[in-house]
Amino acid sequence: MPRIPLLELAHARSGDKGDTANIGLIAYDPVDYPLILEQVTAERVKQHFGSLVQGAVERFELDNLCAVNFLLHGALDGGGTVSLMTDAQGKVFSTALLRMEIEVAEEVAMRVAGRGRHPGRGTGSAS
Amino acid sequence: MSIVRNLRSTRSTGTVRIASGQGFWGDDLDAPVRQVQGGRIDYLMLDYLAEVTMSIMRKQQLRDPAAGYARDFVPLMERIFGDCVERGIRVVTNAGGVNPAECARAVAEAGRRAGAGGRARIGVVTGDDLMDRLDDLIAAGHPLSHLESGEPLESVRSLVRSANVYLGARPIVEALGRGALIVVTGRSTDTALTYAPMVWELGWSWDAWDLLASGVVAGHINECGAQASGGNCSADWWEIPDLARVGFPIIEAGADGSFVVTKHPESGGVVTLRTVKEQLLYEMGDPTSYITPDVTADFTTIGLAPEGADRIRVHGIRGGPPTPFLKVSVAYAAGYKAVGTLVYAWPDAAAKARSAARILRERLDRLGLAFERVLVELVGWDATHGHLAGEPSPDLPEVQLRVGVRGPDRAAIERFTREIAPLVLTGPPAVTGFAGGRPRVQEIVAYWPALVDRTVVEPHLDVDVVEV
User: Fold this and answer.
1) What pLDDT is stored for residue A116 in this prediction?
2) Candidates B377, B387, B405; nearest CB to A51
């Protein structure tokens, strides 16, 4: 089965609460939401981030928004003003998650392949 | 008095329009002016407080008893005071920080300079500041234990710099009811600044959980300014138009609790399902239980429906009663830190930077300096995605070496700041970017979240209404 990065299927925003980063992952198209539910589990996200997340990963589903919310505990070197990290507030953890690859059916890969999620490629224009 | 005529704004249309004008202290200074001038609004909410802002304000107040609030708010009000008075636009803000009374006094002066003397009232909400009550509270059996670690506050008591309870909408609603054109609070929740006007204007009762929960969702959408209207949106960001003149969000609320998220016509940015969803998920915990002082909202019940260009209807939200506790934000001194940087150029930029980091570590070890934590990042390679970035190519054009240290001993951190520049002549080649001088030693003021029984806070809340 083809593997594609989540970037092709979803957009995301992240933030912080103390030493915990949160990532809201949102399907571009509601038809892809079940695929996200099935494959982007808390276990897989924990595995994806590896040493970047010291504690547990929790997942909450928001079927109404075709979105899932992840809490990554112990991800921010103490968080807020304590943290030495460039991304002390977890602002770009969202993009690190969008790197994760999932397995999809051929037709899904075909459907999203031409969509283009970058400026100047696909439908976008770099202005 | 003429002010009383403006007590409620919604009567003619049945809706109230609450504009977001500031998402944090440091946000776009002109955004509130654009909100006032760009079309009809009834309320302007301005959020100035983040988790550690209160401790910064406390520090300023210790140097100057008349300081300790968001100073930006005063010149802003001077610019918009006339419009607010003329059009009955009411302003709700937590700009008061640790000193709401002084903030109100300065705003009243600004109002008189703007020709609004005798034409407006300012409501001042106090009672959130627990600093002077901490020992009494601890002695009375309120340990203010850390929400995550469970450690009692006693363990850092002598290091505490500020302690404030997050207040809900009730005192703001009281101030609006007493005719305040401007309501200045200390540590109110960000969301209350938006839903207090909804409660007041739409006549909601304090046990109408679904309506209050709707207000909280509206507040969550408004509280980060343009993050709901195209700013920082990851979905096809290059297609979002005219962020240079981005329109901040406006909540248009009706009595049934549903509301529309929109923005002024002819402003930049967009309001779409995508921008609203991203903001709804921002800083989210358990979405079924978004706890505020007034209501617990369930974000999994939110319905969204597009309703024309730049208009998203939000409906169907369910809520339940709040908890017996209020959240307390304590700030305490937690040691020191410093961050030093150098830039390495092609070829083998990353290898050079890593080599420099090893040399630096060895020197720090030889000096016998102990740190609680040392962090090495290569900006341009792994600073944001860590190991997910893989191994750097030898052809990477450049990389910034960024080394951070923290610990309890200020002298050790200070010594570290003198070890960066020497690497320029004593380490790997192709290094630059040190013109900024030695890194600065920063005192760490850390955040200690806790809960307190609401019954020990609520009797101390006070609303004062003063004439401009």
Assistant:
1) 56
2) B387
Over the stretch A55-90, which tens digit does the pLDDT of each residue have? Answer: 999 999 999 999 999 999 999 999 989 999 999 999
Alpha carbon distance B20, B35 (integer Å): 8
Measured from the Cβ of residue B142, the count of other Cβ atoms closer than 10 Å reads 20
Does the structure show a pLDDT above 60 at B370? yes
Query: What are B222's two structure tokens?
Result: 């408004």
Question: Which of A17, A52, A63 comes nearest B386 by C-beta?
Answer: A52
Tally Cβ neighbours within 10 Å of residue B395: 9
Q: Cβ contacts (< 8 Å) between A98 and chain B: which residues?
A: 234
Instruction: Tabulate helix, strand, coil % of chain B (nearest 5).
Output: 35, 25, 40
Reply yes or no: is the peptide bond before residue B324 cis, omega within 30 of 0.
no
Nearest to B51 among A48, A80, A117 (CB): A80
Task: Say whether A65 and B281 touch across the interface (CB within 8 A).
Answer: yes
Alpha-carbon distance of B54 to B331, in angstroms, equals 8
* DSSP result, B112-159: HHTT-TTS-EEEEEE--B-GGGHHHHHHTT-----TTT---GGGGGGG
* Shortest Cα distance, chain B CAs vs residue A65, angstroms: 7
Instruction: Residue B417: list chain A partners with CB under 8 A.
Output: none
- Span B79-98, pLDDT tens digits: 999 999 999 999 999 999 99
Give me the domains of chain B, ranges plus CATH numbers.
2-128+166-323 (no CATH), 333-448 (3.30.70)
DSSP B312-367: EEEE--EEE---SEEEEEEEEEEEEEEEEEEEEESSSHHHHHHHHHHHHHHHHHHT
Residues B446, A63: C-beta atoms closer than 8 Å: no
Cα separation, A57 vs A34, in Å, equals 20
Domain boundaries, chain A: 3-79+88-113
* Cα nearest neighbour of A47 on chain B: B388
CB contact under 8 A, A22 and B304: no
Please state the pTM of the whole predicted model.
0.95
What's the rounded Cα separation, in Å, for the pair B377 and B386?
8
Task: Provide, as residue numbers in chain A, all residues whose Cβ is less than 8 Å from the Cβ of B52.
Answer: 80-81
To test the contact with chain B by mutation, choose from A65, A73, A100, A121 the residue with the greatest count of B C-beta atoms within 10 A, namely A65
Does B282 contact A11 at a Cβ distance shorter than 8 Å? no
All residues at 6 or more sequence positions from B58 whose CB lies less than 8 Å from its CB, including other chains = B68, B98, B131, B161, B162, B331
What would the DSSP string read from start to end of B355-409?
HHHHHHHHHHHHTT---SEEEEEEETTTTTTGGGG-SPPTT--EEEEEEEEEES-
CATH architecture for segment(s) A3-79+88-113: 2-Layer Sandwich (3.30)
Cβ-defined contact of B406 to A87 (cutoff 8 Å): no
Kind and range of the H or E run holding B287: none
CB atoms < 10 A from the CB of B100, how many? 30
Compute the residue count for chain B. 468
Q: Which of B287, B387, B444 sits opposite A69 (nearest CB)?
A: B287
